[in-house]
Amino acid sequence: MDILRIATSGSVDDGKSTLIGRLLYETGQVPTDRMQQIEESSKRRGLSFTDLSLLTDGLISEREQGITIDVAHIYFHTPARKYIIADTPGHEEYTRNMVTGASQSEVAITLIDARYGMLEQTRRHLHIAHLLKMSNLIVAINKMDLVGYERSAFEAIKSEVESYVNQLGASFTLHFIPMSALHGEGVTAFKDGLSWYQGAPLLDILESIKPRNIINAEGQTNFQVQQVLRPRGGDDPDFRGYAGSLRTGSIRVGDEIQVLSTGKSSTVVGVHKWGTELNASGPDQALTVLLADDIDLRRGDALIAKENDLATSRRMTASICWMDEQPMTSRKKYIYQQGSFSTKIMVDQIQGTVNLKNGELKSNHQVLLNEIAKATFKSASAIPAIEYQEGNSTGAFALIDEQSLNTVAVGFAERFA
Question: Which domains does the chain have, with CATH numbers?
């Protein structure tokens, strides 16, 4: 059965957790005893309604404050497919959690409070969805009951979002839905309040979106080595396997491959997955590859098809989302981490930070917490010159502080020199 990965986004109190709770409830995913617990908890809080957000806000601090802090992954299914929803926080303080949750998703649901329209955090989340090259963006204009279900309120926000997305030059497909997640309007069906809207409810739109593989199967073969396996025992004391993940393309027995960093070549003589021998494998797979020759390989090395000319570079331009309280400045050095490959990297020049009002770059000499920026980098070792595209995680990377070893940024490669 297909799996569609979704991330919620938007500003704080726009109703993300309530929407997910409503979706779970209306698709029959909530056991009776669990629903009774939620109803009793809502009464203890003095609420006149059943607070479905309690189905997703699992941390004590989340329930006390009525906000989402951590990323919760929620699983549900319909007869058509399975779904994994990353319920991400709306507070600016937890933007890093939102980026983490959205990074493995292919669809974003951005909620907007119909009373307030787009806020700064809404724009930030839209920009992040653009950087992640989401295939579809669903804009749920929520809390329509608090504006009397007025069509004019929906149309005004819709126009505002379309204008901002056009300024970004984003390529995702846009879907707009008027909604009241609290009352169940627009989630799986439309009721009396939104009878003027002729479009499909949220669940119907989700059912219509065709899932994609997180890794592009038609890309060039790129197998990243994570560990060299030498058990030195059993039936084959000379066994040497290279465990890792196939990031793009395919790999099969008989393929001629080469090591990206050294150009040394060999032939694939075995492909194993969980102890089972395969003739071939597609992308997004954890595998063990056996080669005809004992090549010096180590963690972080990449195997590519021998006929491919996958370029490498030490200069890169990338967009980054900054996640550290210490600002990023020019000439600062970090650890570049991409899969199991790492190398030292230096900020060559900060080209600018993003003005969230219009999506344009503004000149700046540093990048502060939660800012989005564009910069050029120089790396100590050559890195694969692969630009970040939809479905291609090879072009995404993390920056790690050399002293604290904290992840300080995520980045998306745009150009190599």
Answer: 3-208 (3.40.50.300), 222-305 (2.40.30.10), 312-416 (2.40.30.10)
Cα separation, 146 vs 181, whole angstroms: 12
Q: In the 3-class helix/strand/coil scheme, how is the chain assigned residue by residue? A: CCEEEEEEEECCCCCHHHHHHHHHHHCCCCCHHHHHHHHHHHHHCCCCCCCHHHHCCCCHHHHHHCCCCCCEEEEEECCCCEEEEEECCCCHHHHHHHHHHHCCCCEEEEEEECCCCCCHHHHHHHHHHHHCCCCEEEEEEECHHHHCCCHHHHHHHHHHHHHHHHHHCCCCEEEEEECECCCCECCCCCCCCCCCCCCCCHHHHHHHCCCCCCCCCCCCCEEEEEEEECCCCCCCCCCCEEEEEEEECCEECCCEEEECCCCCEEEEEEEEECCEEECEECCCEEEEEEECCCCCCCCCCEEEECCCCCCEEEEEEEEEEECCCCCEECCCEEEEEECCEEEEEEEEEEEEEECCCCCCEECCCEECCCCEEEEEEEEEEEEECCCCECCEHHHEEEEECCCCCCEEEEEEEEEEC
Q: What is the mean pLDDT of residues 242-258?
A: 89
Q: Over 80: is that where the pLDDT of 97 sits?
A: no
- Token pair for 233: 């025992």
Paired residues of 252 in beta bridges: 280
Query: Is the C-alpha dihedral spanning 352, 353, 356, 362 positive or negative?
Result: negative
Ramachandran sector of residue 187 (left: φ over 0; alpha: ψ -120 to 50; beta: rest) = alpha
Contacts of 329 (CB under 8 A, 6+ apart): 347, 350, 365, 366, 367
155, 44 contact by CB (below 8 A): no
Rounded CA gap, 278 and 255, in Å?
Answer: 13
pLDDT digit string (tens) for 183-216?
999 999 998 889 899 999 999 999 999 876 544 5
Quick: pLDDT tens for 115-159. 999 998 899 889 888 988 888 999 999 999 999 999 999 999 999
For the entire predicted model, the pTM comes to 0.79
The number of beta carbons lying within 10 Å of the beta carbon of residue 59 is 13
